[in-house]
Structure formats: C-alpha cells, structure tokens
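Good morning C.,

I know you're traveling, so I'll keep this short. The sequence:
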Amino acid sequence: MQQQITLSDAPRSTRHFRNTAYVITESREYFDAAYAAGLMGIQGRSTTRRAFALGAGPLDSRPKIIDFVRCSYLGLDNHPVIVAGAIEAIEANRSLHWSCARTRLSFDLLAELEATLSEMFCARVLTFSSVMLANLGAMPLLASGQLTGGRKPVVVFDRIAHMSLAYHKPVIADETRVETIAHNDIDALERLCREHPVVAYVCDGVYSMGGNSPIKELRQLQDRYGLFLYIDDAHGISLFGRQGEGFARSQFLQMLGDRTIIAASLAKGFGASGGMLMLGTADQETLFRRYSIPYAFSVAPNLAAVGAALGSCKIHRSAELGERQRRLAERIKIFDCRVATAERGNSLPIRLIAIGSEAKAITMARGLLDAGFYTSVTFFPTVARGRAGIRVCITADHELCDIERLCDAILEAVSNTTEKPDTGPAFP
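The tokens, ready to paste straight into the viewer:
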C-alpha cells in the first residue's frame, strides 16, 4: 500500500512513507463500485453458526446469508462460554469501563487475564483494545533502541506487512532508518543483517491475504546475526498449538527471550475482542507498562472484552480447542479439493480467488452474495491494481454442505468469466 522509495543513502528529509492522497485517488472508483453493489458497509444480525440475517426489519423477512468474511476461524465469536464471560464480567463489576490510565488503576480481572494468557503462551503478555493499538505502542519503542540494548536498529518491513504495522513507518523513520524488502525475501534481509550491527524485522505471521512468513528461516537469521523479530500473528493465533499458541509462537519452543515480540489478536481465532503482545523478558514488560502510549493513556480493554477473553481461555485450555482445530483443517481440505488457489495445500484458513479485473471481481462477489454467500472482494490498496480477487475465510463452524455449495458457486462464476482467474499470488 505504501509507495516504495528505496533511497538508502538519501537524507531523511527526502524519504516518504505515506501516500494517502495517492491511495484515495487511485482506489476511490473501486470503493464506489463495491459500495454501489452492496458489498461493503452492509448490516446484519447474527443468527446461528456462520449465518446472519442481512439488512434491517423483522428477522423472518431478511435473507439468510452464510458468512465467509469474518475471521473467527475456530467459530468462537458466538460461543456461549465467551458471551457469558462478557456478561458476567460487567455484572460482577457493575461497570463497563474505567476512564483511567492503566499506570494508575485497572480492573483486577484484567490482571487475571494477562496472568492467564502469560501462563498459556509461556510469555509475558500485555493486553490492548486492539492489535493496531498494540503495534502503535510497540513501534516507537522498537525504533528507540530500548529493545536492542540501547542501539537503534535498522527497521526492515516486509513489503506486504499489514497496514496496522506499515502505518507506523513515519514514526519509526523519525528515530532510525527504515527499509522495505520484497515479500519473504530472506536473502535481502540477510544482506541487511551483514551490513548493519542491529536489525529488526517487522512482518506478519499469517498474512491477511493468504500465506505466511518463513519462521524457521527467520529464526536462523536471529541465531546467526542477532536479528530482532517483531511478528504480528493476528491471523494465526489459536489455530495451532495445544493451547492455541498460534502459528508464530508454536515455532518458538522455548521462552521468547529478548529478541522476539509477537503481537496477536484476541478477536479472530481467539473469538473475543482486543489485542496482545507476547514479550520475552521482565525488562521489556516494565518498559511497555510505563512507556507504551496506548497502555499508559486510558485505552485498556473494556470489561466485556476482558470477560469474553477469559471465557475463551477456558476453551483454549480444554479438549474443545483441539476438536475445533481439527474441524477447521478438515474444512480447509474440502475447499482445496474443489477450488485451486495459490494457497492450496497449506494449513491456513485464508484463500484468495485471484480474478485480476476489479470490475469482474466486484461482479463475481455480488453474484456470490445473491447466491447466499458473503465473501470479501479485494482490490487496491489491499492488493495491487489489476490483481483484484475474492477472499474466503474458512472456519471450523461452517457446515460442510455450505462449503461445498460455495465451491459450486465459485466454480460456476469462474466458468462464466471470460478472463480466467490467475491462481498465482495476488500480492502487491
């Protein structure tokens, strides 16, 4: 999404990391078309499992749509234990939110949640109202050198790192050098590690448009060069590991140590609300509790979010988690047997049907909605221009027959498209 300018030797004042006006100008027609087609900004009410009632008015008169948009990959977002946890937390405290900095006062349930998550994920966990805010609090500290022994690192971003990460490039660039490399380009990252004494790499664990970071290779660079890793695993949490440690954390078998931080969501696979940071040391925890801006200034998760997360922790520590992980894997295989995508064969729940033309992708998504399936039409700036497509989020709570019917609808739509979809990666 960012205009990539590689002027490694240029003065800081000539570097540019934001291009908001350009993005708006270039993408407005696609947004206008998607809204006009009724594919964005729609409203509904949750019913059962992955279904929702579209629009307003009496529930009996509304169309029932099967949702493949929500990222609740384990189907926990309407789990009765999680809903009950939210209600119980509010009732027990007769409050939803204390308008007070966490450096002064916070709910005891929040401390209980962080202690429980810390034990589950074998890390020092801090919670936030969202992953975006967790990243906002972390990026300035990373740039300052306080996480790398007082030496400011060269901060390297994967080119398609999520916007909740890339958005903070200007803040980081105010303190230290920022570089952007091609997606999963381990060779380029190693060259930077050889050229600079301290390097930090910012990436996703599981990418929102499909695919993942090469954790094994990144750990090898960490062992070889002392590379600092900041991994946002919002889309990978809960899907892997005995207690839902996630895609990234489950590949660090020991404690995280002082050179790895993992951000993750308490929504998505976890099924509640909010975000978290997994830290490796007591010094890092102290630093964040005092100097992370979102932590210090009144944006703690509200009690409904805290209670819901505690409810999800109960599920994550039970046999039900493994059952849901297996159900998800089964449904991914069923989809892959029917529809070819660049992601076919991996164990992640995100599939991207690459179409190419923005207009044809919008038309196809509208046709799927008319058939009773809500999917995400993706276009610039989420993906590169001319690389539009349909994102499908598969969950453990989808009925097998609904996945089969969606596949039928996709294959029929593709066969009616004169421009056959490209099954290659649809990344910018």
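Safe travels,
E.
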